[in-house]
Amino acid sequence: MVNIGTTEKTFDSARRSMAQRLALAGIKHPEIIQAMATVPRHVFIEDALSSQAYEDSSLPIGREQTISKPSVVAKMIQALMQDKKKLGRVLEIGTGCGYQAAVLSLLSEEVYSVERIRSLHDSARAKLRPFRISNLRLIYSDGIRGLTQAAPFDSIIVAAAGLGIPDPLLDQLAIGGRLIAPVVKSETEQQLLLIERLSSQRYQRTTLDEVFFVPLQSGMI
């Protein structure tokens, strides 16, 4: 018989250790460290993989999709936040299992998370429901189109790699806002791209780390 209390204590300890490793690896925002130490990553993956929940690895979540490495989640959010204490209105493209959306909800005024795969959208909604997160909205839609009705966004985070940044996402980024996304450089290479909107027509682009994400695709399934 499993002792649930002991199991949860083990997860709590593993989560705190993960957060400490992120701090040592260069995540300097205390708010991000606290958010990563708070959200139970094991809740968002299959029970059979729960022992790996707090390792720095991506894990399958079904439909050929993955949950990103904790270090990648933290680095992407840190690139958006920089010196800010909190993000404003955030658009997440690719809800996946809902983990990153939960982390973002602790660091943002509002989060709109879009998922194109119905089964993942429904599963993420079910996983997130017990947390009763008031500033998070889940939307079943084609993320490449963004979310015009809630734009502009102070931050946009894309959890899948495309050949470039879709124009609708650039258009929906507020002036002074930041967008981070993985971009395909070759058949074997992807890089994180950080974009800051300087004016209505000017964008500044900075290339960051090498990464590996699932492909960014259009349409709803």
Describe the structure.
It is a single chain. With 221 residues, the protein is of the alpha/beta class. It has a domain at 62-211: Rossmann fold, CATH 3.40.50. It is built from 6 helices and 9 strands. The protein has helices spanning 4-24, 30-38, 70-81, 99-105, 118-128, 167-171, and strands spanning 59-62, 65-67, 87-93, 108-115, 136-140, 153-158, 173-184, 190-197, 203-211. The strands form 2 sheets. It has a 7-stranded mixed sheet with strand order 5-4-3-6-7-8-9. Strands 1-2 form a two-stranded antiparallel ribbon. β3, α4 and β4 form a beta-alpha-beta unit. α1 (4-24) runs antiparallel to α2. The model has no long low-confidence stretch (mean pLDDT 95).
CATH architecture tag of the domain at 62-211:
3-Layer(aba) Sandwich
CATH topology of the domain at 62-211, anyone?
Rossmann fold
What characteristic shape results from the CA principal axes? globular
CATH homologous superfamily designation of the domain at 62-211: Vaccinia Virus protein VP39
Major β-sheet, in short? 7 strands, mixed
- Name the helix and strand elements from N-terminus to C-terminus, one letter apiece: HHEEHEHEHEEHEEE
How far the N terminus sits from the C terminus, by CA atoms, comes to 40 Å
The CATH C-level class name of the domain at 62-211: Alpha Beta
Total strands: the figure is 9
> How confident is the prediction overall: mean pLDDT?
95
Low-confidence stretches: none
Rounded radius of gyration (Å): 17 Å
